[in-house]
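Pilot study result, target chain (376 residues):
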Amino acid sequence: MRTSLAERAAPYLEKVAAVAPIARETADWSEANARPADDFVDALRKAGLFRLLVPKEMGGAALSQWELGPIIEAMARIDGSAGWTLALGQGLLGQLVKPEIFREFFSDPNLSMAGSLNPAHVRAIKAEGGYRYSGRGTYVSGCTHASWMMAAGVVVENGATKIVDGAPVIRAGVLPMKDCVIRETWNVLGMRGTGSHDVEFNDIFVRDDLTFPQANALANLGASLAPVALGVARHALDAFVELACAKKPTGARDLLRERVTAQAQLGEAEGCLQAARSFFYETVEEAETRRSAARAPTDAERARMRLGSVMAAQLSARAVDLIYEAAGRTAAANDCAIGRCWRDVHVLRQHITIATTRFEVVGRVCLGMAPGSPLI
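Predicted structure:
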């Protein structure tokens, strides 16, 4: 009998709890320096938390992508950037290349991945046996500690952009970070500790079996990022309860917890978060059932999965907005956990896989129309 998602995640939630003190201790340093602290990354490696998708015989957890949510959410509840770093450091490559290639890569126990799937500034020039990648990958989360990165580029053949069905062909490939140059460009409002800098590379050859359609790489990514939003929102609610039981607002006789508006805002925030979690994990269980049955999803099922991820991010942001308002001026302080959660959730919710722009695609599918985008 197959165990529940909670049971399968439990041993790795214990590992997250063991890493939690280091995640908390290094969060401020990571935010200030716009990169994950080395001590935190080392702790993730030693705990095996970058190897959740790796087979057990190779020292991994042998989980599927759909089983990662509670683990990522738990880390993001400690710190949003820490959760994002964990989510994007996984071996999602295993879904995109042959199993023997995945095993070859992850035979290195310290390997972690980074990636940029924005092809705007990258060209993949067709060559014999593969492609030559040149350009700049943007927002490459985890690039400061990764061994390899995924980059997506517009395919060029015989000196011209390759066009199929009226659109340029975009192909992603795996590049060694040792041949790339990090440009420290991650100057943003939130999620600063992810180190999502730009990375430049020039004429790097990538063999055919290490390349794949960009759409394949993006297809299920939102399901790894949505739990970060859920964790950040829960962190904000936790911090507010602590604050409300200690803060006496200016001009008030009673603690913040006695304020009716604060009670109502917390109640609504809790409702938003519970609704987001319920729908998201419902769609995750459906996806895991399909995976176990080796059945590809229909467009309608893909749209539902996407909607679960988008709503998780957007309702989490709504929950944090309510908490930020309820907390008053205290939340605006840089050293306030609620303020950091607010900054983090409003940056992460803009990621293309969980942004409100995905609603249009879902709506088209609901209306019986073609999705109009490879990213459903």
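One observation from the pilot: The first helix runs from residue 5 to 33. A full batch analysis is planned for the follow-on phase.
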